Amino acid sequence: MTNKFDINNTFDPDNENQAPKVSKEVATKLPTPAKGVDHYLRRTDTDPKAAKRAERQVAAFFGASSLFTLIFVVSFFAIPRETKIAVSLIGVTSAQNIVLGTSFGLAILFIGIGAIHWAKKLMPDVEMVQERKEMKPADEVQQEALDAFRVGATESGVGQRKLIRRSLLGALALFPLPFVVMLRDLGPAPKGELRKTAWQEDLHIVTDITYEKIRPEDIPVGNLISAMPENILEIQEEEGNLNERGKSAILLVRMRPEDIKSQQGPDWDYQGIVAYSKICTHVGCPIALYEQRTHHLLCPCHQSTFDLADSGQPIFGPAARRLPQLAITVDEEGYLVARQGFQEPIGPSFWERGA
User: Fold this and answer.
1) pLDDT (tens digit, 0 to 9) for every residue of the chain, 355 residues total?
2) Does the predicted model carry a pTM greater than 0.85?
3) Do the Cβ atoms of 170 and 139 come closer than 8 Å?
4) Are strands 313-316 and 305-307 parallel, antiparallel or unpaired?
């Protein structure tokens, strides 16, 4: 059975069981059905009960999207950020992140499923062919496009299928709420948090991972060591995150004292050992690719290159600022310690810095 437009009657928006119909005037402007392609009516095209059932199914999907959007909003405020849960394959993670990600993903999914189900079961599915026109359409072609849009809106059933229309509008009205709620995560302002790290005067420098104190003789000329402040584990446990660990990571490099061209402060090295922030000043990638002969440090993300023998200045790539240097010395027992904290913000530039 071939599907054809009914051009003898116009569509009655008050009759929910009536299939969409098109007037003669509008139908003559539509693309013609593909020749040689048989099209068979779906059950929803001939059975009003099947059409109503499909309509309820579509509305149920849109309603489910609205429900999960509300779950997202409620969870954002109701679940404490410090609450942890164990998840298979992931391990212990934030319960709030799991619920927010799952609910928002399902909200998007159900809108998509509802739209696809609507198109497959209720919208027209006649295959049409339309020849390509010039890129700049004439006025009459633009009018044809508008007419075709109006016909499509009529045939989609959005006018007479009130249940679908209302549930879709409800889902779309609620959908932006998660984006509004997430604006809360833009604040409060970080104030001085971007300008300071855990480093302070006389704080021991320890190796990353093993957290052992470091003596100058532990670093041969040409070697590089990733290091942390000795209290980093206490800060992590107290704050419950890795933010300070990322900010306070440094690199210790030893070179011959005569190879050092300049430093960011007077005698900030100790016997040729210099300490620099490990965070690239471009977008914050960790750096650890050191070239011993040239004393150049390469960022693996965007190839910014810094000269550690010359105050950590950038010599190649997109980074515009030098790597901040940490002034170091030794304590009475001969272990490396910080003489003071960083004297400038580490990492990428930010709006309050202005550079």
Assistant:
1) 344 444 344 444 445 444 444 445 544 555 556 666 677 788 988 899 999 999 999 999 999 999 999 999 999 999 998 888 887 777 778 899 999 999 999 999 999 999 999 999 998 877 777 666 666 777 888 888 888 888 887 877 777 788 888 999 999 999 888 888 888 777 666 667 777 899 999 999 999 989 999 999 999 999 999 999 999 999 888 877 788 888 999 999 999 999 999 999 999 999 999 999 999 999 999 998 999 999 999 999 999 999 999 999 999 999 999 999 999 999 999 999 999 999 999 998 875 565 4
2) no
3) no
4) antiparallel
Give the E-state strand segments of 208-354 in sequence order: 224-229, 250-254, 273-277, 289-291, 296-298, 305-307, 313-316, 325-326, 328-330, 336-338
Strand order in the sheet with 250-254: 205-207, 224-229, 250-254, 273-277, 325-326
Q: What angle do CA 310, 312, 317 make, to 5 degrees?
A: 110
Domains of the chain in sequence order: 24-186 (no CATH), 205-338 (2.102.10.10)
Read off the tokens for 117: 């189900």
**Tokens 């990733």 map to which residue?**
226
Mapped onto helix, strand or coil, the DSSP state of residue 141 is helix
Nearest alpha-carbon partner for 268 in 331, 343, 339? 339
